[in-house]
Each structure stands twice: as structure tokens, then as C-alpha cells.
């Protein structure tokens, strides 16, 4: 049985395209600059990258085999990669390691009553209420939290906090 043939003029560009999108979305996610769509693209394109690499290996099978025929660097690197990937499943964070400080701060702001959040942003309550309304969030009263008004929707909470930050007086430089 012969190995399936994959046109070489397709294999490498498909790997390059998939890798480029994976790298870009991965960097954005690392720095927390992602949108929910980017996360979905990154996760699903991971399967595309896997298929593209398989295409690339099949299109370049003789050269790929040569990597494993001579010095054992390719075997060693591949072994390390498999061990790291497989071992990551078994490694769990240390006990007591909780969410990040920034995540805790956002949660605290989201759960605080409006009058407290307005103080944190240096805004009068009516200005904070207006900024939130402009962001599409209406609070029942000054004791209502952003989280309650957003019904726990993290995206809406983030949008509301960004609106407050934008409305806040800017410190003099």
C-alpha cells in the first residue's frame, strides 16, 4: 500500500496559514487581549493545524523519514514534546493557588454596590449610572451591583467596567 499523496504546493502554505492564525490568537490570549471569537478560532483551528501538519508530513515523507534515520536529535525532541504534552495532564496547580489578583479585583468591583464602584472610579454616582446606561446596563438602585444588573454575564460586566474607566477623570501627567 502506498502512502497517500498530498500536493506539496498545498501542504506547506496550509501549515503556514494555520500556524500564523494559531500564533496570533495564542499571543492575544496570553496577554488577555482576546475576544470570545478568538478563543473559539484558536481552539478549533488547533484541529486544522493538526490536519495541516499531517498533510505536510505526508507530502514530505521521505525527508521526514531522514530526520529519524541519522542523529537522534529529532527522536529526542519528539520524545520530550510527547512527555511534556502528556505530563501536563497529570500536573495540577499547587493547593491554595486561586484566581489571579486582577480576577479577584474585577470580581470585587462587579459585586460591589454602585455607590462603592463609583467611588473607586472617582465618579459621582449619577455619572457612573450614566456611563453604565451608555454601555447598555441599567441598575435598579445605588445598592445594586454591576454583576446583578449584568445577570452574571462576564462580557457585560467587562463592558460596564470599561465604560466606568473611560468616564473616570484622568490623572494629571
Automatic annotation (TrEMBL):
Organism: Pelomonas baiyunensis
Keyword set, alphabetical order: Membrane, Transmembrane, Transmembrane helix
Matches recorded under Pfam families: DUF4405
Entry superkingdom: Bacteria
Ribosomal protein listed as a keyword: no
InterPro entries cross-referenced by the UniProt entry: Di-haem_cyt_TM, DUF4405
Protein name per its UniProtKB record: DUF4405 domain-containing protein
Keyword Kinase: no
Residues spanning the membrane: 12-32, 44-62, 74-91
All residue ranges annotated as the Flavinylation-associated cytochrome domain in the record: 10-60
Amino acid at each position: 500500500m502506498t502512502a497517500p499523496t498530498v500536493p506539496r504546493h498545498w501542504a506547506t502554505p496550509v501549515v503556514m496559514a494555520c500556524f500564523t492564525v494559531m500564533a496570533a490568537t495564542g499571543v492575544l490570549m496570553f496577554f488577555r487581549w482576546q475576544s470570545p471569537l478568538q478563543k473559539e478560532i484558536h481552539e478549533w483551528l488547533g484541529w486544522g493545524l493538526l490536519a495541516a501538519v499531517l498533510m505536510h508530513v505526508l507530502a514530505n515523507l521521505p525527508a521526514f523519514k531522514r530526520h529519524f534515520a541519522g542523529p537522534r536529535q529529532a527522536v529526542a525532541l519528539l520524545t520530550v514534546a510527547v512527555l511534556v504534552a502528556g505530563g501536563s495532564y497529570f500536573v495540577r496547580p499547587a493547593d491554595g493557588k486561586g484566581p489571579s489578583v486582577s480576577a479577584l479585583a474585577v470580581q470585587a468591583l462587579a459585586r460591589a454596590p454602585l455607590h462603592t464602584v463609583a467611588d473607586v472610579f472617582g465618579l459621582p454616582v449619577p455619572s457612573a449610572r450614566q456611563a453604565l446606561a451608555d454601555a447598555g446596563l441599567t441598575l435598579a438602585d445605588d445598592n445594586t451591583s454591576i454583576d446583578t444588573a449584568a445577570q452574571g454575564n462576564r462580557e457585560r460586566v467587562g463592558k460596564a467596567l470599561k465604560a466606568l474607566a473611560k468616564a473616570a477623570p484622568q490623572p494629571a501627567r
